Amino acid sequence: MNNRHTLLRWLVAALIGTSAALSHAETIRVAIGTQDTTINCATGGLMIRELHLLDKYLPHTGRYKDVHYDVQWKDFTSGAPLTNEMVAGKLDFGAMADFPGSLNGAAFQKAGKRSIFISVLSGSIDGSGNGIVVPLNSPIRSIADLKGKTISVPFASTSHGMLLRAIKAQGWDPDTDVNIVTQAPEVAGSALRANKIDAHADFVPFADLFPYRGFARKIYDGSQSHAPTFHGALVDAAYAEKYPEIVVAYLRATIEANRLMTEDPEKYSLLIQKVAGIEAPVDYLYHGPLGIQTRDLTWKPEYRQALATAIDTLKLLKKTDVKLDANTFIDDRYIREAFKESGLDYDAALKNYAKSPLIANDAVTGKPIRDFNDVAQVWLANEAQVRNYANPAEAFAALDKLEQGGTKARAVFVHDHGSGLKLFANQAWYVKDAHGTVVAFLLRSGADTYARHVSGKVLDYAVVSGASAEAIAAR
């Protein structure tokens, strides 16, 4: 009996001790602000959340042995409100572009605090991702046609910076030669449909989403400005100093999300569509092989310069008077450690400028595809994987046969012959030479120049693909 009482007393004491220990265990908040519809933030937000990747890397040893994590996620449609909540102490991490990221740093500094950019998520050293679109039936073919026109843009966004640089390149005065008005993407979509604006400049993915949805046409891609742009991840500097291992854990989850997207871009493009409502072909246009932007997590000199340019431009726009230094605003210690713990070579990645590679065989010949500027792809509605073709003519011929058999295409992709920029096929211009070779171009002007060089003909998608207007609309 005494032994039984002793055992009961020991069990009660143990339970009380455990309860006391649990009650004193530290709870650490991990609050992350995402931009789900800004799809090039996906590997730093949406995918980590939906695939529960952060749970795999949060530390549970040493000082974190008895920690309880309170992981919180909040989605935003733009960077400004996300920044407000970070500065207010309601969020620890955030994902946004270079321009709103600069405003984030300035807002923190004004509040007597600091935020730091810890990683790039996706970007383009040439500026792809930003773009200018016009209503579908507009006679405007290029930016040169926009003098005296009304152009809307989300103010203080990365696309605002692109627009100002593009106008300057034309030799125009942005205050007198064009009428620039502020407009969020959601509002601009309706304005384009109703022909209430002449053009709209926007960031990822709207300059490609609106054309995909059939009511706009891209006339300018940010890559024409040759001004680097990126989206990246930020963190409250005080939080990072207190919990550096958690910052590294978040970045390791980002690295895994990036790997998964590279391995199966169709699958995760469909996930983005399901969660954010951005159609999978648009997601694939960015995240698939040879995509519009690269998911580059390293701080290349071009991205550092993009941030410095964003800071200077915001000062010119009188959006901030805070002295923000890009060199101290960027802190690459955490992403370097995340690479190291993931068994990756950061310095090698820093030197690698290649797009996500296309390693594929031609769907007709079975031979490896070598020429990537003229490659074409068809994503059928009933297939999980994209079909790859060596050239547009081959893809269009194959698609014609498939559609005659009742199969529908989810999307068709081609590449600008000069730049390699990935395009939706029904948005491109084409040149067909005397040998029947077909190549694609983003701009009519580019097609015209090439046609003169090869004595070819400039054709639109309907003609070159042999598709009817109804079939194009169905795609």
TrEMBL record:
Signal peptide range in chain numbering: 1-25
Keywords: Signal, Transport
Top-rank taxon, per record: Bacteria
Domain Solute-binding protein family 3/N-terminal: 27-279
Pfam families: NMT1
Gene3D superfamilies linked: Periplasmic binding protein-like II
Keyword match Transport: yes
PANTHER family named in the record: ABC TRANSPORTER SUBSTRATE-BINDING PROTEIN (PTHR30024:SF45), ALIPHATIC SULFONATES-BINDING PROTEIN-RELATED (PTHR30024)
Described purpose of this protein according to its UniProt entry: Part of a binding-protein-dependent transport system for aliphatic sulfonates. Putative binding protein.
Similarity comment: family membership: Belongs to the bacterial solute-binding protein SsuA/TauA family.
Identification of the protein by name: Putative aliphatic sulfonates-binding protein
Organism of origin: Trinickia dinghuensis
